[in-house]
Amino acid sequence: AQSVTQLGSHVSVSEGALVLLRCNYSSSVPPYLFWYVQYPNQGLQLLLKYTTGATLVKGINGFEAEFKKSETSFHLTKPSAHMSDAAEYFCAVSLASGANSKLTFGKGITLSVRP
Amino acid sequence: DSGVTQTPKHLITATGQRVTLRCSPRSGDLSVYWYQQSLDQGLQFLIQYYNGEERAKGNILERFSAQQFPDLHSELNLSSLELGDSALYFCASSAGPAPTFGSGTRLTVV
Description:
heterodimer, A: mainly beta, 6-stranded mixed β-sheet, 4-stranded antiparallel β-sheet, B: mainly beta, 7-stranded mixed β-sheet, globular
């Protein structure tokens, strides 16, 4: 079975500072990895995904993540935080491809951005 | 708008009652997933349907059931409701590896 660990429940950064949200996964086979964002009272929106190929993936809103197999990690970064980035962020893993993408989520990290 | 439509957005009901949550997937998506989000359990996968057939089952209680209809919309039925069933229920659909989520149905059991 696969699992996702997101250490810590809350990260606070200043506007303009680097954002780093950590995600480690456990999987017996090569995984597909995802980051989703959830704004208050909304659904989950896909930020980026890694399936195959380039290990550094770029997503929406300036976010990117790097798949590191040796470290079983898929950390999310953004060079400069914006107030609008305040939200909850979820890392997820799946083992399937195509239309059978059952996701296993981490517990989520709340990102706060200080003016 | 993600293209995945969930109704109703909010539902308040009493313990012991039965409710039905509805989901219309994005046009062309054959897979529908149901997830439950609660403070205690986080985001939990409940069940997946693909083109009308059950494809995968997760942490879904026996009191809960789902189906996907020929027009691909799906319904999640929750019965004998308990206070602990209060949660946000998401539907997602996909044609590829990254499901698209609806805005959810917030269920409150009183």
